[in-house]
Amino acid sequence: MTLQIGFEKVDITPRVGVELCGFGPFINRHSIGIRDRLWARAMAVRHGQTTLVLVSCDLIAVSDGITRRTRELVRAAHGLPDDVVMVHCTHTHSGPCPSPLIGWGDADLPYIEILPTRIAQACIAAVGNLTNAELRHATAPCEGIGLNREYDRDAPPLEEVLRDDWRPAKPELTDTTCHVITAHAGDRLLGFLSYFGCHPVTCCQQTRYIHGDYCGVATNLLEREHPGSIGLFLQGAQGDVNTCVVHKPEQESLLALDVIAARFANAVRTGMRAAQPIRVDGIAALSRQVIFTRKPVTREDLRAMLAAKEAIAWAANAADEDHQVRMATVYIYALRRLIARLDAGEPLAPSTELQGFRIGPLAFLGTPFEVFQAIKNDVVAGARAPIPLVMGLTNDELGYAPDRTCATRGGYASEQVPYMLGSLPFTAIHEELAGALLSLDGELTRMLPDAIRR
């Protein structure tokens, strides 16, 4: 059977003036200009009777509602079932807010209304562009970008990290290589995928320009170098990894953005040159609903937490410019929502979609979390697929999946963010997520012909 691949991209840049997402509660970070346009970039793959569609969006995240609507439109156009359409995000903090997080940037309703149609247009056109093609793969050194913010917390001065020879003190706690996948029709490069795990937060809360952060800037650059090609960036395990420059003043941030984007582009170029053909004798897709255990919390517990936060916001001297008041407000609205769900008899531990694609030796394992490196490492070590890629920010936004050490320590990622998202902290997300992804990987492997199982 012949492998067919198609690409397309659609502009998803919002109008200037929409609030940008990330960096803090109710900071009113409205955009003032477009530095780089945002894109939904889609790749369709067909082998035999199976067609898969993967779309990468220059967005911080999408809600499950946006994913459902996108899949509906693709199904109406091509008859493809939901489990073969994967909606992934790069996690840029310099774009609009289509995710459910309260206070981190108000969702622009007209933009949200049209967004699924634009994402679906990229998917639909990618299927329409299917042509006989070959896939190639390589890994390439990708250093001097990430720094683990949980275990290697102190970023060196700007002049140090912008030197080409800078490396973090603990590189083993970050990705030090990137995966590069290229698709060719004869001598023509149709498109490419780059996979790497690092928060794309080069810029700071003072910057108000729309762009796709370092990964978007790098992908745009590489596309210009290869006219007619389309590049998808796939965000890996980035829950505990920042770029080496973050939270600096605006001018320093914008300077560093180009430097770090150039480092990443250089790594991808190396991978593109080194990529070797891979054999694809089968493809497969699976979607599974998983319920992760949450910490037991009673209605009385939630009421007590709510009262404590209301006391901050309702104090006689409370001021809305006070960060503590703004943060308390995030909790107030989230806790009220949790209590309302409890009163309505709704589960406080809803199911979560995990989705996987298998394309020959490649396994794309999608989660809606900001995954920590240690979880990804466990999956890679135990996977049956020769090339397992653990992807965060896929199909939804459910906060962090912290490793067991961070979860034991508590704090922002493991305790605060779940409540801010209107959810409950996880009990054992490290073990449960790694186990669920390895199970998904195993199921995908069993769906392939015997000849390509490992």
Jot down its keywords.
454 residues, alpha/beta, 2 domains, five-stranded mixed β-sheet, 34% helix, 24% strand
Enumerate the spans where pLDDT stays under 50 for 5 or more consecutive residues: none
What shape does the CA trace take?
A: globular
Number of strands: 20
Intertermini distance: 21 Å
Strand content: 15-25%
> What is the count of structural domains?
2
Number of helices: 11
Structural class designation: alpha/beta
Strands in their spatial order, largest beta sheet: 5-4-3-1-6
Largest sheet: 5 strands, mixed
Mean model confidence by pLDDT: 94
Rg over alpha carbons:
21 Å
Task: Kindly state the percentage of residues in helix.
Answer: 25-40%
Textual characterization of the structure:
The chain is of the alpha/beta class and 454 residues long. It has two domains: 3-286 and 351-414 and 428-452, no CATH class; 299-343. Helices cover 34% and strands 24% of the residues. It contains eleven helices and 20 strands. It has helices at residues 64-78, 109-128, 158-161, 213-225, 250-274, 299-313, 323-343, 373-382, 404-409, 412-420, 429-446, and strands at 3-11, 33-34, 39-47, 50-57, 85-89, 131-132, 134-141, 146-148, 177-185, 188-196, 209-210, 230-235, 241-243, 276-277, 283-290, 352-359, 362-366, 370-371, 387-391, 400-401. It has a five-stranded mixed β-sheet with strand order 5-4-3-1-6, with helices on one face. A hairpin with a 2-residue loop joins β3 and β4. The protein is globular and about 70 Å long. The mean pLDDT is 94.
